[in-house]
Write a structure and sequence with these properties.
The complex is a heterodimer of chains A (439) and B (310). Chain A has 439 residues and is an alpha+beta fold. Chain A folds into two domains: 2-153 and 320-373, D-Maltodextrin-Binding Protein, domain 2; 158-315 and 390-438, D-Maltodextrin-Binding Protein, domain 2 (3-Layer(aba) Sandwich), CATH 3.40.190. Chain A has helices at 2-8, 11-16, 20-23, 25-28, 54-70, 83-95, 107-114, 136-140, 164-169, 182-195, 210-219, 234-249, 256-263, 287-294, 331-343, 345-351, 361-367, 373-385, 403-415, 421-438, and strands at residues 44-51, 74-81, 102-105, 143-144, 147-148, 151-156, 158-162, 201-203, 225-226, 229-230, 277-283, 299-301, 317-324, 357-358. In chain A, helix 5 runs antiparallel to helix 16 (345-351) and helix 12 (234-249) crosses helix 20 (421-438). Mean pLDDT of chain A is 88; it is low at 1-5 and 8-36. Chain B contains 14 helices and two strands. Chain B has 310 residues and is mainly alpha-helical. In chain B, helix 4 (79-110) packs parallel to helix 8 (171-181), helix 10 runs antiparallel to helix 11 and helix 11 (212-240) packs antiparallel against helix 14 (277-305). The radius of gyration of chain B is 24 Å and the shape is globular. Chain B has a two-stranded antiparallel ribbon. The A-B interface holds A 84, 87-88, 91-92, 94-95, 112-113, 116-118, 256-261, 263-264, 399, 401-402, 405, 408-409, 412-413, 415-416, 418, 431, 435, 438-439 and B 57, 59-62, 80, 141, 145-146, 162-163, 165-168, 250-258, 261, 269, 272-277, 279.
């Protein structure tokens, strides 16, 4: 059915030039339509929202235009906002029964929306979306309670961004990231701070970020969440805070008030982006933007481990998902567009690694030829990590979406000496548990 | 006669029952209709909905589920809520008196028949228009930042800079200063009030040998009490509802270490970040209660210090 639907509208073009049929591959690639959802005869308009910067918006609009050219029957209305505004808007729109048809979804929110029935189980669209090129471990991150609520767009991994210029300035050799430990990390940081003359620090910030707490917990044989519940032990959080305090005391990190000030500044004003921090914990895909801002030849390195060497604590984080509203009037068309985003080489060529390293392995290979050196480094980092990736990291349970907002007051209390690491760790775990219970 | 006195007289005027006046009443109601519809649809409707939601568990995505007084019981044990009340009380009860004191002092100075009065009045009034805007909050963040104007200024005297906004012991003070800075609105009202003080009282007192300070304390100030009362009620209510400044300056989280976590900001975070809209609605109604209680106390106390000259 669907092949006819999309091609019927383009018959004129096909008549004009037979080769045009090749362009229709995206509409035709997924085989004959499903039983669950059929495409409409009428023109269809779908709303589509994402968060991100201007660069992403320009690329996304280009993808939309390419899709509309292939399926003229479908109009996609794109809308974007910044990260914080995005979730407020999505929550109120959903409460008002006005959810966008297609949305960019995050790991922290997918259970919150999926478990509460706001997202469409994409398996109900039949075989409209081709998932054959996606690794099972990536697909699993979008499955919650047996429903497929999101198609993984791209993958990320925790990484340390190292600024070689600052290492050289301090006269410190670059570390061997296959074997370094947290002690090495701290010592190197202290040397960089010492060689930086007061304005440069070893490490820019610590203690505010979901990904780095998860990694720390995994290295301690613990896990932030298990089966939709908070499972991290307070000892792991306490250790994490104690390490942070040691870094502040030894001058590896800047003073508390600078740390807090940088927290609300944008990525481009971070100490990594402004060449004031020798090392920093980031997601690997952030290399390109950070290197652009800093102008320094930043390098991605593996996260240290307690004893040095891989210990299975590394994990793939799905940088974002494509999800569809459960209330959409056009599930078939939405699935068609998702398939295009996930599998089309044209879309891959336009988006490259802007949203992270594509989870679709075929697309990942395909775009390699078109990437800048930094983008290649991002992809290779993830590829090289493949053998050392441990268990799949549990998805954020419903109710814990605002985990970082709950965490920061406790981290700040530790930084300013208002609470001991033990008190803050206990307070944070209790607050997170109560948020999940209330959710 | 003061402005308030005039309002009263209008209220007391008896409405006669002639048919012409009845028609005029109808016309008046007709003109009021758009406003009334707005009130019903945009204000009263949502308020009733939030009253209902305050007795439910509601995560925005699923239908609300009635839980009686569950949200209010949770509020009793919520330490972050108690902390946010503390922050809000400090903000209201420090910034409002200082702001009104400054407004009154400047109004008295400006009332001395200064040349270019309207210019000064506009300049001082300007911050009131801008004070609760996002732009000013962003500016404030820069001014009090580590590399900000304040640190540059105190650096001139050799003093060491300070992260005013990123230190929990000073962050709230910067917000209080911001609120004090918006003294223009009460100042303009004070100015109008000062114009109403009858010159003959002051002249008579002067003839009797009263000093300037005595004249202010014994004549101007008592006659001004209704205006002070009006400003006090208005500014306290206004300060309790402050939101934008703290939201922007702390990046939405009331930080550092919850030191700028206004009650309204916590309410917002519970509702929109934690999807806990039932609880947030209960908090909203509790805020209404708090404001109501303080306004009632204000009105009760006004019997003892507000003087109506009529």
């Amino acid at each position: 059915m669907r092949v006819n639907r999309c091609t019927a509208k383009t018959t004129v073009f096909v008549a004009l030039a037979a080769t045009t049929a090749l362009l229709l591959s995206a509409c035709a690639s997924s085989g004959v339509g499903s039983d669950a959802a059929t495409l409409s005869d009428e023109p269809v308009t779908l709303s589509f929202t994402w968060w991100g910067n201007d660069l992403r918006t320009a690329a996304t609009n280009e993808v939309i235009a390419a899709f509309e050219a292939e399926c003229p029957n479908i109009t996609i209305e794109g809308q974007f906002s910044d990260w914080a505004g995005y979730w407020d808007k999505l929550a109120t729109a959903t409460a008002a029964n006005d959810t966008p048809d297609i949305m960019q979804m995050d790991e922290k929110y997918i259970a919150t929306y999926g478990e509460r029935g706001a997202l469409l189980d994409l398996d109900t669209t039949g075989d409209a979306i081709d998932l054959s090129e996606f690794p099972e471990s990536a697909l699993a991150t979008g499955e919650i309670d047996g429903g497929r609520y999101g198609i993984p767009t791209a993958l990320n991994s925790q990484a340390i961004m190292v600024n070689p210029d600052l290492f050289e300035q301090a006269g410190v050799p670059l570390p061997d990231d296959e074997n370094w430990t947290w002690d090495d990390f701290k010592q190197l940081g202290a040397q960089i701070s010492a060689g930086g003359g007061g304005d440069v620090f070893g490490v820019q910030t610590w203690g505010f970020e979901d990904g780095s707490l998860r990694t720390w917990a995994r290295q301690a044989g613990d896990s932030l969440y298990t089966d939709g519940e908070v499972s991290i032990k307070t000892e792991a959080v306490q250790d994490w805070y104690e390490y942070m305090l040691a870094m502040v005391d030894e001058g590896v990190m800047p003073p508390a008030s600078t740390v807090v000030e940088k927290l609300t500044a944008g990525q481009a004003e971070s100490m990594t982006a402004t060449n004031r921090a020798g090392m920093g914990t980031w997601w690997n895909s952030q290399l390109t933007a950070l290197a652009d801002s800093s102008g320094a030849p930043l390098q991605i390195m593996r996260v240290p481990t307690p004893d040095g060497g891989a210990d299975g604590s590394a994990y793939y984080k799905t940088s974002m998902f494509w999800s569809v509203s459960s209330r959409t009037e056009h599930p078939a068309e939405a699935a068609l567009f998702l398939d295009y985003l996930a599998n089309s080489e044209t879309a891959g060529d336009i988006m490259l690694t802007e949203r992270g390293v594509p989870a679709n392995e075929k697309i990942r290979e395909h775009i390699k030829a078109n990437l800048s050196p930094n983008d290649v480094a991002v992809v290779e980092f993830l590829d090289n990590l493949a053998d050392d990736i441990g268990e799949v990291e549990s998805v954020t349970p419903a109710g814990a979406s605002a985990m970082e907002g709950l965490l920061s007051p406790f981290t700040e209390q530790v930084l300013f000496g208002q609470a001991t690491p033990a008190q803050a760790a206990e307070g944070f775990v209790a607050a997170l548990k109560s948020a999940v219970a209330a959710g | 006669m003061s402005a308030l006195g005039e309002l009263r007289t209008i209220g007391h005027r008896k409405v006669a029952g002639s048919s012409k006046e009845k028609n005029e009443n109808k016309a008046a109601y007709l003109f009021l209709l758009p406003w009334f519809l707005g009130l019903a649809i945009i204000t009263v409707g949502p308020m009733l909905a939030s009253l209902y939601l305050s007795f439910t568990k509601y995560n925005l995505l699923q239908p609300p589920e009635i839980i009686g007084f569950g949200n209010f019981e949770r509020m009793l044990g919520d330490e972050r809520l108690h902390n946010s009340l503390g922050v809000t009380f400090v903000y209201v009860f420090v910034s409002v008196p200082v702001q009104l004191g400054l407004a009154l002092a400047l109004a008295v100075v400006l009332n001395r028949g200064l040349r270019g009065l309207s210019f000064y009045r506009s300049v001082f009034y300007l911050p009131s228009l801008l004070g609760s805007s996002v732009a000013i909050a962003v500016l404030w963040k820069q001014v009090f930042g580590t590399q900000g104007l304040v640190n540059v200024f105190i650096g001139l005297f050799g003093a060491e800079g300070h992260g005013w906004i990123s230190d929990p012991s000073t962050a709230l003070s910067t917000l209080i200063i911001l609120n004090v800075w918006t003294f223009g609105a009460p100042m303009v009202i004070f100015l109008a009030g000062l114009r109403q003080v009858p010159q003959m009282y002051l002249e008579a007192a002067e003839v009797d040998g009263a000093s300037k300070w005595q004249r202010f304390l014994r004549i101007t100030l008592p006659l001004l009490t209704p205006i002070i009362f009006f400003n006090l009620v208005l500014q306290i209510i206004h300060a309790f509802q402050s939101f934008t400044q703290a939201f922007i300056i702390s990046g939405g989280n009331g930080g550092p270490a919850d030191s700028t976590l206004f009650y309204t900001l916590y309410l917002y975070n519970r509702g929109f970040a934690n999807f806990d809209m039932g609880y947030a609605s209960a908090m909203a109604w509790f805020l209404l209660l708090i404001i109501g209680v303080f306004t009632a106390i204000n009105f009760w106390a006004s019997k003892y210090w507000v003087f109506y000259d009529d």
